[in-house]
Structures are given as structure tokens and as C-alpha cells.
Amino acid sequence: MPASFAEVLLPVEPVRLEPANDRRSMTSQENREVGLEPTRARALFRGQLPRDRESCLRQLSCFYEISELIAEHGAELGAVLQGAAEILQRSWQDPQRTAVRIVLRDRQFTAGCFGETPRKWSVPLRVRNERSGTIEVCCGGAYADARQPGAEDQEQSLLESVALRLGKTIERIEAEEALRAAHENLEQRIRQRTAKLAEANAALRDQIDRHRRTERALARSESKLRRLILNMPDFVVVVDREGIIQFANRGIGPMSAEQLVGDSGFRFMVPGSRERCEQALQRAVETGQVQNVECLDVFGIVLQCRVVPLEGGEGREQAMVICTDVTEHQRNEELLRQQRDLSVALNSITDLYQALDRCCQAALEAIGMDAAGIYLVQQDGGLELVVHRGVSEKFVEVVGHFAPDAPLVRMARGSHALFFGPDDLGEPVATAVAAEGIRGAAVVPIHHDGQWLACLVLASRTLEQIPAPARRAVEAIAASVGGAIARIRAEEALRQSEETWRALVNAPTESALLIETDGTIVTLNETAARRLGHDPSEMIGRCLYDFFPEPLAQSRRAVNERVIRSGRAVRAEDNRDGRTYEAHIYPVYDAEGRVIRLAIYAQDVTEQRRAQDKLWAEQQLLRRLFELQEKERKLVSHEIHDGFVQEVVGAQMLLDAAVAALESRPEDVPGHLRGAREMLARGLAEARRMISELRPLIIDEGGLVEAINYLAARENEMGRIHVDVDCRLQLERIDPIFEGTIFRIIQESLNNAKRHSHSPRVTIRLEETDDQTRLEVADQGVGFRLEEIPEDRFGIRGILERSRLFGGRATIHTAPGQGTRVIVQLPLAEMTQADLCDE
């Protein structure tokens, strides 16, 4: 067996190689890099191992290229492994049919198309004595040196040597990369630490700058605060725990601020207040909380003290006391309270004189005057004293009234209060004022909305002028008096107006309501309440729709909402309890034009609607009567033209022929005359028939009963229907108009019975009672339903309307299969009055 390739990979002295294929010579340093043992190399190229010469040269070249590859400084691991795979492929016996794969952990580096072949070499790749991958070579062709003993072992030895060098190289490169990463990490940490130090340094500089600015601002604030404390209107002192003044912003009374320092602040307080101030100071120092206390000083000033605890110098506890003068404030609060009580009292008083008396009392209590009075302005411009306090009746008799030109009136017409003495009023008022002991007085005008209403007069027996603080209170009381006078007068006028309005609203028969948009009743008149069946006081404040049935309430609500949306008045009509009501709904607007209420006026139009319906019905009846009259005229004209006129014309023609035949043919004259006579006879019969149809002469000659009997006899002769007559009239004759009306009703009833009833018998009964005439026409026919009669049929409607026109009443009793009865009742008084008028 030849020596393995690993045996010759040792450091040797320089040797020169001269391969036949002109491969370059290698120095001993190069051999040292690839690990070639010199003795083996010399033996190889001197013929001792002639057959593996080419193979050794190829392997040495492969090792040399790999050594150059891994010797590059800073080479990337992936590039080294990929280059090693490509070098191994090129250095193999048949590069075209050889593929190399280097696997390192989860990474692969290949050269050629690697696949499974029968000839395959594989060696492990160890890094730090741990298997981390493999080097694999596959060859697809026949091995040329197969006959050379140990050839495949030499290839295996080459792969192992390469794997060994690559493992060391991988370990070196990974160590370099780790070192490089650690170096970069260290540099990054140094940079981050440097940046943090820079930020901290900048923050420290900013903090120092802010601290300096704060110190400067604090110094300025302290200076401003000192100036503010020195110039503020309140008295500010700093005291220690025992009350010794350490600082004062100003003096008290005759003592300056410098004189107060070192003195006790408690000695300026009256007994009672002193103890409260000592207790407040001790609590503030002990608890560290602000204390408030009210006290009175020796000068009569009411002070509101605020004790603020401080930390004094040298560990001593101090407090700052801020004293506010609230004397005027309390006096003003008392005046405001009195004014508020006065306003509340005036709002509940409705009597004018009682309100004015209450104002006099309030004025005296507010300013401590001795007497007061209120004058009301009269229509002539004079003043009349209505209420007074603190003066005698004798004095009131003198000053109870002032003419328009009196001095007091001239002073009271101004806009501000005026002060005067007794000499300013003239005699005899001045004498009365002096006798009353009054030294000074003031007149305060009372106005409201620019109108002069009254004046307030105040008097004092000790003071010559009203104190300045009390003047504002007097003017405020005067303003309250003006408002009370205006309000009470307005309420009185409003009451009178409401009474007048209620009288006017309750007088008509229309319903009047005022409701909110949601239906709440604001007010209504008695007519509306009576129609809804309630008392007005019970309905105000309730919803209007609650007083109607649900369907009608929904209809009313829909109409009202339409008015609210459109802002326009609407007329509506509804039926309730058999009555018809017409309502007019009007919108009520506010100042911005929005609908806020609805005014509803409703009236009962039942009788009006009935009268309109009656008038319309009568108009329709009259129109139908005219149509019937015109129809009867046309019928009469046609009957006259087709009957009577034809007979007369024929008779005239025969008479003309007879006259013409007297000379030429005398024998024909008798025949013409007989024909003419027959035609005239038929024409006369036709004329009598038409007269009987229009108004039988027998009515005028024999009366109504004979006419009825005649009509029944003629119907019986015709044989179409049998008519029975039962007449029991006590009056022989009645008004011709009533006779014609009754005859027409009977005639129309018989015609209807003949046409529609199919009855063999009709009964006519005419009788007279105490105050009316009763007619009944009855048949035994098929009957009918009244509601099925068309409106354009005038037969039955004519019977009903004829009866109504003469003050009577007609009723139709019928049903299918039960026959028909027509009953007509006419007042007997109308018939007799008509007879008297005719007579």
C-alpha cells in the first residue's frame, strides 16, 4: 500500500517540483503551508511513486489554493466555505462529473450538481472538537486511477486534511467575528454611556439654569410681595407665639409701623376679642393651619383676621395676621338684608297703602330717622300724603297736601335726594315743621321706568342731614317703593282687564280656549267648559285631548300639530254627541316668531248645518218640481199635438171637403160631415181625458171625496186592480190646494201600486181626527226596501215632499213580501185657515 496523503503533510525544507504539465514550482514555505513531507514529495516525483504523480500534484495544488483562500484577512465564513467547495470540485480527477457539498450546521455550500452516486467521499467537519458539519464529494465517472493501489484512500486523506484545516479556519473566523461583535458591542455601549452622560450633563446644566432663574424670580416675587404688603389696604402684621409684633405694613391710630414693632398686638383689642385672637394664634402655631377670627379693636373697627402660620428665624414660631376692615361691609350687608326683606314683603302685598306703610317702616329702621312719609303724585301734579310715621295728626293736617307749585313739589320732581331745612318750605309749613321739632329733612323722588310716581320724605329731630352711608339705602328703598307702586297698579289694572276679558269671553256662545303646544289648557271660557261637561277650574292645567274620545282626540291632535308646523290658522269640523262643531285654530307666536300656544274658537253649527241641508234639499225639490212641471207640459203638449189636434185637423179637413163637394158632388157631403163629427167627438173625449189627468173637474164640482170615488170607479172599470175607498171626512170642502195635493198623492200611490206591487187590491182610507187629516193607501204587493230607491226617482220622494210643504208628514211602511202602506198626515188647521182666507 502506498503511503497515505496525511503522512507526507509535514513541514520540510525547500524542494523544487517540476511537473510535466508545467505546474508552477513551490517553495519550502509553500510546502510548509500545505503540510507536504519532503521525502515523500521527492520520492513521488523521482519515480518511486510514478503512477500517483499527477494525483499528488493535483492535491497539492488544491491544498495551496485553499491555503491562499483561508489566509485572506477578514474573509467572510460563507465565502471561504463556498470557495473551498469550488476548489475541491476543480481539483478532483473529473471536475465536470464531480460535485462537492460542505454542510455547516444549518448552512450548505455546494459546487456542481450534488447527487447520490456509487462513488462518494464524506468526512466530518469538526469545530472545537465538536462535529458541526460534513464535506461530501460525489463523482459520476469511472475512476481513472482505479488500478493504482490506495488512490481512493489518498482522496479520502485529502478530504480529511481539508476538513481539518477548514475546522481550524472556521474556529478562527468565528472567533474573529465574535471578537469583532464584542468590540462593536463595547463601542456601542461606550457610545450609549457617553450619550447618557452628555444628556445627564445637559439636564444638570438646565436644572442649574432653572434653579438660578427660580432664585431670581423668587427674589423678584419677594420684592413684589413686600411692596404689595406695604401698599395693600389691609393691615398686615407678623407676630410671634406671644403676640409680639415683628413686622407691620402700616401704623395704627397715632402709632407708626416702626413704633408697633416690639409691642403686643393684643393690647389693641377689646376684651372678648383679645381672648379669641390669642386662641386663634395658638391654634395656628400648633396645628400649622390657617385660622379665621372676627374681632373688634379699641377704635370701634370690626376686623376680619386671617392668621397664617410661618417659620420664624432662629427656630422661633411666627404667624402672619391679615386684618380686613369689614365695618362698612357688615353695615352694607345689614342694609341689603333689610332691602331683601322689604322686597320679599312687598312681593306678597297686594294693597298699595299697606305696601307704602311697610316701606316707611323699613326706611326708618335703615337710617335711624325719627319720621317718614310717602306722597303720591296726583293727576294735577300735586302731592298727597298717603302714609306717615312719627308725626302728629295736627302736623299731618298742615302737610297732607301740596299744590303743583309748592316748594316741596319742585324739589320732589328731581332725580336725586335733596336735603332741606324748615325755612326752605315757606309758611305755614315752616311753622308746623318747627313746632314738630324737626331740624333736618330729605325728599327722595320715586320713579319707575322714567315716570315720577311718588316721593319719600324723611325727617330727624336731632340730625340736620342723613348720614352718607344711609343715603344709598334710602335711594334703594325708594327704588323698591317705585317698583311696588308700579307692580300693584299693574296688577290692579291686570285684574280689571282680566275681569273685563272674562266677561267678554264668557258672553258669546262660542267656545274659547288657549292651550300649550302639547295640549295643556291655559284658560278657557264657561261655554267651552260647559260643552265638555266640566267646571273651568277643573280643566285648567289638564290636557285638552283627555276630554275627547280617542278617535276624536287623535283627529284634534293632528289638526293642532298641522297648525304648529305650518304656523297658519286652520278651520276644522267634527261631530260629537249628535252635534256639529266648527273650530278655528290660530297660532300664538313668541318674540322670535315660534308657535308657543294655540287659540281655539269653536261654535255649534248644528242648526246652521241642518238649515243648510234643508235649504239644499228644498232647492233640489224645487228643481225637481220644475223639471216635473216642464216634463208634464211637454207631455201635455205632445198629447194635445198627437191626439186632440190631430182629430180637430182631420175634422177640419173633412169639413173643407164637404164645403167643396156641395156644388160638384153633393152626395158626398153627408159622409164628410159624419166623419168630421166622429173626429170632433174623439177630440172632445181626448180633451176631457187630459183635463181629468191634470185636475179632474169633479174635484171642483163635487169635492175631494167624489173625485176619489170617481178615480176608484175608473180603475175598477179598467179591471187591472181593485180599489176600495173608505172616506170619513166631516168637512164637506177643504182648501182646493189641499184637495189637489191629497188627490195627487192618492193618484201617485195608485200608479206605483199598479206598476210595481203586483197587488190585486188597493185600499184608500181618508179620515179626520181632532187636529189633522190622515190618508192611508195600502196594497198587498211584493213590497221593497226604501234604501234601494234611486235618488232620481221622484214618485215616493214627491209624496214625502208634498206632505212636508203643507206642514204635514208622510211615512212609507214596506218590506219585501209584506206589501206597502203610504200614510200621510196633514194639519187640519192649515186647511181651515186656507178656507177662511179664500172666503
Describe the structure concisely for a colleague:
The protein is built from 23 helices and 25 strands.
Q: Can you offer a commentary on this structure?
A:
It is a single chain. The chain is of the alpha+beta class. The chain contains 23 helices and 25 strands. The chain folds into five domains: 5-185, GAF domain (Beta-Lactamase, 2-Layer Sandwich), CATH 3.30.450; 232-325, Beta-Lactamase, CATH 3.30.450.20; 345-495, Beta-Lactamase, CATH 3.30.450; 508-604, 2-Layer Sandwich (Beta-Lactamase), CATH 3.30.450.20; 698-838, Heat Shock Protein 90. The strands form five sheets. A six-stranded antiparallel β-sheet has the order 12-11-10-15-14-13, sandwiched between helices. A five-stranded antiparallel β-sheet has the order 6-5-9-8-7. Strands 17-16-20-19-18 form a five-stranded antiparallel β-sheet, sandwiched between helices. Helix 1 packs across helix 3 (53-71), helix 3 packs antiparallel against helix 4 (77-91) and helix 21 (736-757) packs antiparallel against helix 22. It is flat. The termini are far apart.
